[in-house]
Amino acid sequence: MKKTIVILSLMCFMAIPSVVFANDCNPETSPTSVSVVLGGQTVKFCSLKEAYDAAFVNRPGAKADDLNNRAVEMMMKDFRSGEYFNFYDGFYIIESTIKVKNANPPYILGFSDRMRAWEYWENNVDKIGGRVANFETATREYSKAASGPSKKNLAKQEAASKQVEFLLKKKQ
After folding, report:
1. In the predicted model, is pLDDT for residue 111 greater than 80?
2. DSSP category for residue 87
3. Residue 130 phi/psi, 5° resolution?
4. How far out from the chain centre does Cα 107 lie?
5. Which of 3, 12, 51, 157 could bridge across to 45 with cysteines, CB 3.0–4.6 Å?
6. Number of compact structural domains in the chain
7. Closest CA to 38 of 4, 1, 75
């Protein structure tokens, strides 16, 4: 695993076109494959998380607003059709419990349009849970999950926990 992370980091920083097989995943055949143009080279990843990190977190010269400005060319494979679509125009099933073969977690399923995503989610919601989101919501939620709750939210959670404890003691 450490070797894969080192290889991925080197690839991102030097923009060397190569294929990374993390966790036995082949980005050429992965149903969650994402291709990203980095340093003029197209690089494929097995998951949206890996592609997001390479394009918006680890890329030299990355700016905070690059995602909103659509500064990096990204294409994601449609989970149903297998055809690539513009990442920024897609819809995603996020926060689900689905496990996808030949893919890396977190398993974010991409769809070229909202109706496709909605139909797949609606037909499988009992098994996989989650929800449908556009790219902005999907990446914002991914970023929150990766960085954890903010200090403000942690303080709110702690205050709420103390209130619950107080009420429970008061009932006894």
Report:
1. yes
2. G
3. 75, -165
4. 7
5. 51
6. 1
7. 75
Helix (H, G, I), strand (E, B) or coil at 89: helix
β-sheet bridge partners, residue 74: 36
pLDDT in tens, 54-66: 998 888 888 888 8
Instruction: Sort 170 into a burial class: Cβ within 10 Å, 0-12 / 13-18 / 19+.
Output: exposed
Residue 137 pLDDT grade (very low, low, confident, very high; cuts 50, 70, 90): confident
Q: Check whether the bond before 31 is cis (ω within 30° of 0).
A: no
**91-96 vs 129-134, strand pairing mode:** antiparallel
Q: Are 87 and 34 in contact (CB under 8 A)?
A: yes
Residue 56 lies inside a defined structural domain of this protein: yes
Give the range of the structural domain holding residue 35, as residue numbers without chain letter.
Answer: 2-150
Residue 157, domain member (yes or no): no
Residue with tokens 């080279």: 41
Residue 169 lies in a domain: no
User: Sorting pLDDT into bands at 50, 70 and 90, what band is 36?
Assistant: very high
Are the beta carbons of 138 and 146 closer than 8 angstroms? no
**What value does the mean pLDDT take over residues 5-12?**
41
Instruction: Tell me the pLDDT of the chain averaged across its residues.
Output: 78
Q: Which two tokens stand for residue 140?
A: 């914002």
- State whether residue 10 is helix, strand or coil: helix
